[in-house]
Every structure is written in structure tokens, then in C-alpha cells.
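RECORD TYPE: protein structure
NAME: Pentacotripeptide-repeat region of PRORP domain-containing protein
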Amino acid sequence: MAKLEKVSPFRLTSLLRLQKDPNLALQLFLNPNRSPKPFRYSLLSYDLVITKLGRAKMFDEMEQIIEQLKNETRFVPKEIIFCNIIAFYGRARLADRALKTFDQIPSFRCQRTIKSLNSLLNALLSCQEFEKMREFFVGIDQYAVPDVCTYNILINACCLCDDLDSAWNVFDEMQKRRIWPNAVTFGTLISGLCANCKLDEAFRLKEAMVRGFRLKPNAFVYASLIKGLCKANELSLAFKLKDEMLKCKIELGSRVYSTLISALFKVGRKEDVIGVLEEMRENGCKPDAVTYNAMIYGFCQEKDFDAAFGVLSEMEVKGCKPDVTSYNVIIGGLCRDGKLREANELFEDMPRRKCASDVITYRTLFDGLCDGMHFKEAAFILDEMVFKGYAPRTASMMKFVDELCQSGNLKLLWTVLNSLAKGNLIDVDTWRMVVHMVCKNNKLLNASDLVETLQMP
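PREDICTED:
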């Protein structure tokens, strides 16, 4: 029997790069030759397997590899590996693990620079840990000298908190430190100003960007301004700005056109949407799900459901698969218009259309059925929702239980409570409401059974 060919360190990196399954990549890394003999891993092989595990959110397994990396003496890990790890934790909203990784970098004999600090600040921003961001920035000099990326992250945090005064203070401080702002800096500030309806300041900043800093506005800057103008119903200026983008040969993405389409529906100019779609195609911008969903939403707001369904059909003809948002918008519109049977039929037809419902789908239909006093159907949707691991909005659930208590429909109430108990969704307020109703109606014989239901894990 022929011996199995041994895997070299170089061969291992090639195999890891080709392996799509993170579990198989991990097994291959841990035992490349199926032998107890030590294996001389390369730094690249560590980087590859850590990246695959981090993207798959297999964090415990990733930590196992990181701990093994710490014991390597043949090389020093590069800082970019830790930047990536911190980013993985940030996207997973695991701020504590991101902080721990940053603190451990020196134990790998790797020097921390502004790159890892920026990665940490960005991770904390993703986790909305604004106070921890502030603490790190106050003591930033003990780690590294801040750069433009550092300040851009801080400005973004201020804008997300709607604290524009602090954003301006950060902008002023970076200039005092002789750190030149870039297009991202201005784009973030302009986006924050537009979101807070400060359009005059946003346009002044755009002019300062060009004249004072010799920077060309990018697509993000224009998109933010157009969105702000549409929000303020300044459509003529929005279209003028769109034309300026074309003149400056800045690529218009589908989101800019989708914003304009939504604004046209909002002001009752749906007949102009066809012209926008034609211009999109002429400029080589293919309508996508965002574009079509903007049209679906507009037709639903006008209660023109035939047209909304027509857009769904057009999407399929044009090779653009409707996403769950497409269906959620129509289901929501039908529910608001009291067309509950049609909404439920579309919901049940989603699997045939190869689109899985999500928590928004269930919540939208559940709320609609409750508002329409279709309690039996709402109870059925609630049970299915809980079975799939979803939960209704707390306010909706409380309102539903209250309606059942007021109507005295104890049989259906009992069914609903059992469904809620399966998902561990019964809180103290629900307990009080139901117990009060049971006692008020002298149903004390059922009270002990009710307590057992409410205590289900």
C-alpha cells in the first residue's frame, strides 16, 4: 500500500486557501499529516485559518488557533492579523472580545500601532460603545499618534449620536494637529448634516471641500445631499445635483436613482418614474431590488396593489429576484388597508416564490391580524413565529393578550399563553394582566394551571 504524501507547510497554505468549509479548514490545519509529530506552520497558514473561522463566526475555535499562535517562536505575527480579529468581533457586536484582543497584542511580541487602535475604535463604533471610544481617545497618545482614519471614526460616532457640535469639535481638533481631512471626513460630516436637515451647512461644507481643501466630492457626498434634498421635498435641486454628478462623470449607483424614485412617489409624481428608469438604463445602471422596492413601496402607499404586484412580476422577467423586503412591503400595505386575506395569501405563497419569510414578515402580518380582530388567525401566526425562534413586538403581544382578556376568550387565551411560554416570552406585565383577569372572572379553578403555564421554561 502506497504511503500518503506528506503535506508541506507550503502545501498546507495552498490547501487552506482552496478550502471553502471552515470546519474542514480547521481540521486540516490541526492535523495536516495525521501524525503526532510537530508541524512547522507558516504565518500565512495561521492567517488563512483565522480569517476563515472569523468570517464564519466560529470564535471559540478561532481563539484556539490564536492561543497556539502565541506559542510560536519562529516568527512574530503581523499586526494586520489582530486588526482582522478585532474587526470580526466588532461585526459580531462582541466589544469585550475586541478589547481583549487589543490588550493581548504585546503578548505576541507584536507592536501596536495606530492601525490596531483604529480597528478597535471602529469595532467599538459597531458595538455602539461610545463611552469606551471616548476613553481610548482621551489616552490615545500612550498607544500611537492619531491619523485621519482615527478622526473619521470619531466624527462618524458623533454623527450617529446626532451630536454635530462634537463632530465639528473633532474636525477642528484634527486641523489643529495638522491632520489633513480627506473625502471620507467631509462625506461623513455632510451625511450627518443632511440627516439633521441642515442642508445649507451641508452645501457650504461641500463648497469648502472643493475650494478650501482641493478635494473632489465623491458619490457618497452627492448621495447624502440628494437624500437630504428629497427628504425636504426639494426635488428640483435633487435632480439638478444628479445632473451635476453626470457632468462630473461620477457614477450614479442604483441607490441614488432609488432615492429619487421614492421622492417622486412621495410628491405624487409617479408618472415621472418611467423617465428615471429609462435614464438609468441609458447610463448603464441596471435597476436592482432596491430600485424595484422603492416602486413597490410607492404603489403600496397609494394603495395601488395591482401595480405593486406588477412590479414583482417585472422583477422576475428582468432577472431580478424579489427579496423578502419586496414581500414585506406589500404585506404591510395590504394589512394597513384591511386586506388581511390577501396579505395572508401572499405570506403563504412566499415559499412557492422561493423567498423565506423573516421576523419582519411575521410581525407585520401578526400586527395586521390583531388590528383587524382576527384573533384566531393571529394566534396561529404567533405559534408559527415562536416555533421559528422569532418573537412579536412587546407592545403588540401585550395588546393581543389584553384584547383576549377583555373579550373573555379563555380558550384562545390559553392557547396563546402556551405559545408564548414555549418561547419564554411571558413577562411580569403579562403575568399580572392575565392573573387579574382570571381572578376577576372567578376562574380560580384554572389559576393554578395558569401559574404552571407561565412558569414554563
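COMMENT: Confidence is low (pLDDT under 50) at residues 453-457.
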